[in-house]
Amino acid sequence: MALNPNSKTSPLFHLLLFLLGNMASATVFTIRNQCSYTIWPGTLSGNGAAILGSGGFSLAPGASVQLTAPSGWSGRFWARTGCNFDGAGNGQCATGDCAGGLRCTGGGVPPVTLAEFTIGSSGNGNKDFYDVSLVDGYNVEMGVRATGGTGDCQYAGCVADLNGLCPAELQVRSGGGAVVACKSACAAFNRAEFCCTGEHSSPQTCSPTQYSEMFKKACPSAYSYAYDDASSTCTCSGADYSITFCPAGSSTRH
User: Fold this and answer.
1) pLDDT single digits (tens) 220-243
2) Mapping DSSP to helix (H, G, I), strand (E, B) and coil, where does residue 169 land?
3) Which cysteines are disulphide-bonded (predicted)?
4) Cα–Cα distance, 94 to 77 (Å, whole number)
């Protein structure tokens, strides 16, 4: 039976409009692994939003997956490395580990490179906000590219190997001695001037440090410390996003 668009009593028509509206406003994240080793991406959703990818999954070298987020979604993505999970999904990772095993029920344990998103809704003018953050440290190269959107839609990322540049006092090493992650100065020293807390809890009193400046020099489009907003927060409207781990490829095995 044909739908009558002028009918005020056509629930099927209104359902169709609802579904089409949601499809139009959905955002697709394409997550790619260009590393030479398997990673286990983790996902975390904020404010009770839909959990994407069941919280976490395995991604082999060269593989990709697509995840769809509704309007207004906010959350983060990161890579876990050196993981061992049993058939039930129980296990641990060398970097980026989370509660819940394979399927994360919380954020990744620092140090970890993060991609953070707040997807647009009518409440914020349908503008997306996104960044790649090193505030919690670094474990894997990451890049975020917007496609099909309007606005500035900048590339965000850290494509340098910070593990190779990491000062000894920030290094996290595997059992075999390889540097597998680089801590933030806050995590390493727990001092107010590095954590932007206490008397250093404002943009005026928390300045870049030698460590955050090292991160910023290596990765100019990534957040290097808590108040690095001006050069690190990206905006776009109506875009889909590609999140690529090891964008330039990597032969370093974690």
Assistant:
1) 999 998 888 777 899 999 999 999
2) helix
3) 35-246, 83-93, 98-104, 153-236, 158-219, 166-182, 186-195, 196-206
4) 17
Which residues, other chains included, contact 17 with Cβ-Cβ below 8 Å and sequence gap of 6+? none
> Using 50, 70 and 90 to split pLDDT, how confident is the model at 175?
confident
d(CA 142, CA 250): 11
- Whole-model pTM: value is 0.86
Six-digit token string for 76: 């983060």
10 Å CB burial of residue 238 (0-12, 13-18, 19+) is middle
Whether residue 220 is preceded by a cis peptide bond, meaning omega within 30 degrees of 0, is no
CB 104 within 8 A of CB 42: yes
List C-alpha distances in Å: 89 to 81, 93, 106, 109, 248. Answer: 15, 12, 15, 18, 30
Q: What digits encode the pLDDT tens for the residues 84-135?
A: 999 999 999 999 999 999 999 999 999 999 999 999 976 667 899 999 999 9
State phi, psi for 35 to the nearest 5 degrees: -75, 160
